[in-house]
Amino acid sequence: MAHAGTVRRPAGAAGDGQAGSAASAWAREGGWLSAWWPLASLIVLAAVLRFSTLGLQSLWFDEAFTPVHVFSGSLGSTLSHVARTENTPPLWYVLEWAVIQVAGNGVIALRFLSALAGVAMVPVMWAIGKELAGRRAALLAAALTATSPLFFWYSQEARAYGLYTFFLALAMWCFLLAERDPRPRTFAAFAASSAFALLSHYFAVFLVAPMALWLLRRRDQRRLAIPAVVAIAIVGGALIPLVLTQGGHGAQWIGHWALASRLEAIPQYYLTGYTGSALGHSVELVVLLPLLAGVVYGLWRVLDDAEMRGAAIALALTLCGVGIPLLLVAFGADYLAPRNVIGAMVPLTALLAVVIGARRTGWVGLALGALSALAFLAVCIDIDVRSRLQRGDWRDVAKALRTGTGPRVITTVHLGTAPLEYYLPAVRGLAEGSYVKVREIDEVGYAPFSAQASSPPVAGFALVARDDVKGLVLFRFASARPRAVPTAALRGHEITLEQGPPEVLANFADAIR
Fold first, then answer.
1. pLDDT band at 444 (very low <50, low <70, confident <90, very high)
2. For residue 512, is it left (φ>0), alpha (ψ between -120 and 50) or beta?
3. Calpha distance 426→509 (Å, rounded)
4. Whose CA is closest to 165, among 184, 152, 180?
5. Which residue, 94, 380, 468, 506, has fewest beta-carbon neighbours within 10 Å?
6. What backbone phi and psi angles, to 5 degrees, belong to 357?
7. Mean pLDDT of the chain
C-alpha cells in the first residue's frame, strides 16, 4: 500500500532519466510560480473575505462580554475573569489581551486575531491535503477552507473558535508529517501545535488524543512519540484545575436544546454557516449537491491506495471529533453544541477534498470541487449583504437608544446587556429589588414576541414608538412625569419568548455618548 505522504509524480511527467533536465527546465520557466499561484490566490481570497468586512457587523452577546467584563485590567485580572466567567482555555485571552494593548478594543481589533488565524488556516489545509493525497486534494482543501461559511463566520468572531481551528489544523498537519517522517522535529512540532490547540479549546482533546494514540501504535517510532505524547498530556493535565474552576457555568443552554436538533444543526452549520438556517433547506440542498456529487463520483471512480488511506485517516478523525462528545452525552457530560465540534470540520474538509479531488476523477472532480467552493463563497457574500444572516445589530440599537430624552431604564433579552454595555459605556445594571425613577422605559427584544410585547410594563407609561433595527426591536414607553419603577416589574415583563426574564440596565440621557 502506498504511504499517504508519498510524493507523486504528475501525470505525463518525464521518465527517470529525464527528471533532472525536466526539473531544471521547470525552474527556468517559472515553474515555482505556476505551482504556487493557486494557493497564493486562495490566501488572498480568504484575506479579502475576512478583513474587508471585519467591522461590518456589530459585536454580539459573548463577543461583547469579553471586552466589557474580561479585559478590564491587567493580564492577571483578565486570567482571573477567565477562570470565573468563561468556559474556554486561556490562550486566546492572553493573545487577545496583548492585541488590545496595542490596537485598542474596537470591533476590528477584537476580531483581528480570529481573521488572521482564518487566513493562516488556508495554507495549512493545503499542506494537509497534500500530505493526505497530493496536490489535487491540497487545492480543494484550501479552496473549501477559504470559502467555508462556517470558517468564515468564526474568522470574524471575537472568540476562541478561529484560533482553535487554526491550531487544530496545524496539529493535524504535524501529525501527518510525524507519521510520514518520524524525526524529533516533526514530533516536537506535533506536540507544540497540539498543546496550543488544547490551550485554545477543550474539545481539541477529542482529536488530539486519537492522533497521539495513533503515533504510539508503531514500535519503531515509539521512542520519538512517547516524549511528545507526555508533553501533550502535561499541558492537558495542567488545564484540569481551570476546568474544575470554570465548572461549565453558562453552558446549561446546551442541555436545554434537543439533542436531535443539535445533531441536525451540525451539517447545516457546515453547509451554510452559523445563521444559515434562515436560508432554508432548499439553499442547503443547493450547496450540498455539488459536494455530494463529488463524493459519489470520487467513490465511484475508486480512490487509489494512498488516497484511500488519506481518506480513512480524515474520516476517523472526523468521527472522533463528533462521536466522542456524543458518547459522553450518555454519561451526563452534555457539551455537544454544534459550534463546539467545529474542530471536527477540519478533517471533514480534508476528507471531502481527498475524495472529490481523487486523481481518477480528472477534471470532473476538480470542477465539482470548484462548484462547491463557489457555492460556499455565495453564502459568505450573502452573509455580508443580508442583515437577517448577520449578528444582531446591537450597535444600531445603541444609536437608537441615544436619541431618547430624560432619564430612562432599559430592559433587554438575556445576554443583551454585554453588547449594550459595550456600545453604551454609561449604562449600568440594576440590582434585584431596586427602584429607578424614570420617564422612559426602553425594551429590546426580537421575534418571536410574547402577547405583552407592545403593552407597558408599568402603569402610567404608554407605547410611543417601535423601532425595528435589523431584526432587533426597540419598544419605547413614556410617561408625562418621572415615576418610580420597580426592577421586579421590569424583569417580569418578558417580550421575547423562550428567553427567560429580561435583564435591566439604567442610563441617563446626559451620561450617554
1. very high
2. beta
3. 9
4. 152
5. 468
6. -90, 15
7. 90
Q: What cell numbers appear for 253 in the block?
A: 443552554
CB proximity list for 78: less than 8 A, separation 6 or greater: 70, 71, 72, 93, 94, 97
Contact 244, 238 (CB under 8 A): no
CB contact at 8 A, 235 and 198: yes
Q: How far is the CA of 199 from the CAs of 116, 238, 243, 340, 474, in angstroms? A: 18, 10, 11, 14, 40
DSSP 27: H
99-105 contact pairs (CB < 8 A, 24+): 100/67, 100/71, 105/67, 105/71
The HSE-up count of residue 426 (CA atoms within 13 Å, CB side) is: 13
pLDDT at 250: 72
* Tens digit of each residue's pLDDT (9 = 90 or more) over 273-289: 999 999 999 999 999 99
Amino acid identity at 164: Y
- The answer to whether the CB of 135 falls within 8 A of the CB of 94 is no
Q: Which of 483, 501, 380, 362 is nearest to 443 (CA)?
A: 501
Amino acid at residue number 297: Y
pLDDT at 241: 96
What is the C-alpha to C-alpha distance for residues 43 and 127, in angstroms, rounded to an integer? 13
Question: What number is the average pLDDT over the span 468-472?
Answer: 91
Running DSSP on this structure, what letter comes out for residue 67?
A: I
**Rounded distance, CA 369 to CA 371, Å?**
5
